[in-house]
Amino acid sequence: MKVAGFGCRPDTPAEALRDALTRTGAQDLAAIATIPARAVELTALAQALDLPLRLTEVRGVTTPTRSERVQALHETGSVAEAAALSACGSDARIIVTRVTSSCGRATAAIAESEETP
């Protein structure tokens, strides 16, 4: 299964989230994921894509990329990567590291696992 994880700033518009997702090139997603604090921003996208929204804890999740700002705020290197990994299951791996929307307000990453949705 594939899960798209998202990180974003408060009040990020849906267009920025879609842009970040498009930049990952992902297809055949089983779900999208983010932290509980960003549920409002991601709910409309999940509904538009007809995918479940998984809210997940990211603290302590090791990620391939690292932002010092995100590390200080969320105790992980990338909210997008950590959310994707956490929501995808115990054998998950990142197949697309975080990409940033053109406006810089959203990031998306894709994780994949052998688990079924």
UniProtKB/TrEMBL annotation:
Pfam families for this protein: CbiG_C
A GO molecular-function annotation: hydrolase activity
* Domain CobE/GbiG C-terminal residues, every copy: 3-111
- What processes in GO biological process is this protein linked to? cobalamin biosynthetic process
Q: Which UniProt keywords apply?
A: Hydrolase, Plasmid
Protein's UniProt keywords contain Hydrolase: yes
Please state what the protein is called: Cobalamin biosynthesis protein
Could you tell me which species this protein originates from? Paracoccus saliphilus
Q: What is the lineage of its organism?
A: Bacteria, Pseudomonadati, Pseudomonadota, Alphaproteobacteria, Rhodobacterales
